[in-house]
Amino acid sequence: MFRLERATAVTLLCWLGLLVGCSVQSQPRLPVKQNVPTQSPIVVHAFDVQAAANLIEGDLLIPASLSVADTAVVLAEREGRIVNLSGQEGARVNQGDILAQFNDDDQRVQLKQAQLEVSRLEVEGQQYEAMIKLNRSELDRETLLASQGLVSKGDVERAQYKLEQSLHEVEKTRLAIETAKAHVEEVKVAMQKSIVRAPVTGVITRRYVAPGTTVVKNDKLFDVCQLSKMELRFRVPQDAGGRFTPGQLLDLSTADPQAFIAKARIRRLEPIADATSNTFGYVADILGTSVLIPGQTVYVHIRRNVNTASYWVPRAAFRSGPDMQAGAANSLFVIKDDKALARSVSVRAIEGDQVEILSGLVKDERVVLAAPSELKDGDHVEVR
After folding, report:
1. Strand 92-93 relative to strand 230-237: parallel, antiparallel, unpaired?
2. Residue 40: DSSP 8-state
3. CATH architecture classification, 59-67+227-303
4. Fewer CB atoms inside 10 Å of the end CB: C or N, the chain?
């Protein structure tokens, strides 16, 4: 009886062990914790942006160059030696003013000879006129005598022939006189070519000859620019506050902003903007008469927005370094919610280690200084 109970107990213990083992094996395994590395923020230095002490007020002065659309090139109309040279570079001249004069001694001799030839032919023509009167009288007498039967018909015909010959000689002389007079006019024209005159009203911008120079026909003598058609070319930054329109008037001054010297009217906008300088080009016409000369530098006055502020930041905020240019777009990093954000800004001026930003920043923004090379847009940063 005792053995039976003992065997039953052993059997129960075996079944209990099997149940416990199955229960342990059926439980789900817990995941093993792994150490996942987290990205540490990039340490940067920051600068708080502040508005410039002064706002942009007054006129923006844009340097411009003066040029002329039309330039008259004065050529030599004859060959010869220049004996008088009154035209000087930079001198203002009116149309018809004498600029230079050739040696015209030969033309003067030719003119005198041509005038003497005209006089000789006129005297010869007068002689033939007198001969015509004499021959006509002789023809009338021979005709009368022939009607009375005192002379033959042949005598009348000879008198008629002499009259006709004298008439032909008078006509030849008249044509010779006209030819001689034409030669006189030709010599006078040649003498006029000995005097070089200004073809237009303007300023002499270049002189190609000197006194005593021997030139040939069609050699260049002078360049005369028409001041009445002087034009102005200038470029305006694209962020200066809108484009100009044709017909718009502009004030011009010298280096002194208060010394207005002329006005100009916009003629056209150049078709292509300059991406390097971030500017638009314009061509304007100078209005009225002024003391301006081609090549002179003047300043165009452009009204600026008095409510627009600029910002100065250290040059270390830019990665472009020495390649940075005023008037061009550049990029830097600003900090927002512990993140670095790439920002494109417009640079107006560079003075030493300071850069003036015209657009792209707002007051109290934080700019990253000396950004690490590995810093990218959206990276977490820690400011020190």
Report:
1. unpaired
2. P
3. Beta Barrel (2.40)
4. N
Give the C-alpha separation, 133 to 319, whole Å: 111
Look at residues 124, 130, 132, 133 and name the one whose alpha carbon lies nearest to residue 176: 124
Residues 301 and 61: beta-carbon distance below 8 Å: yes
Residue 269 token pair:
């906008």
Instruction: Tell me the C-alpha distance between 146 and 155, whole Å.
Output: 8
Prediction pTM value: 0.46
Distances (CA, A) of 192 to 98, 195, 223: 11, 5, 20
Topology of the domain covering 45-55+308-383: 2.40.420
**Measured distance CA(228)–CA(18) in Å, rounded:** 118
CB 162 within 8 A of CB 134: no
Q: Which residues of 188-220 are buried (b: 16+ CB within 10 A; e: fewer)?
A: eebbebbebbbbbbbbbbebebeeebebeeeee
Q: Alpha-carbon distance 272 to 282, whole Å? A: 10
Q: Do 113 and 180 meet the contact criterion of CB atoms below 8 Å apart?
A: no
Domain boundaries, the chain: 45-55+308-383, 59-67+227-303, 107-170
Q: Which residues of 309-346 are buried (b: 16+ CB within 10 A; e: fewer)?
A: bbbbbebbbbeeeeeeebbeebebbbbeeeebeebebb
Residue 370, SS3 per DSSP:
coil
Determine the number of helices (DSSP H) and then strands (DSSP E) in the chain: 3, 21
pLDDT score at 36: 44
d(CA 378, CA 244) in angstroms, rounded, equals 40
Residue with tokens 């209990």, as numbered in its chain: 16
The residues, ordered by sequence, that sit 6+ positions from 145 with a Cβ below 8 Å of its Cβ are: 151, 155
User: What are phi and psi for residue 226, nearest 5 degrees?
Assistant: -85, 110
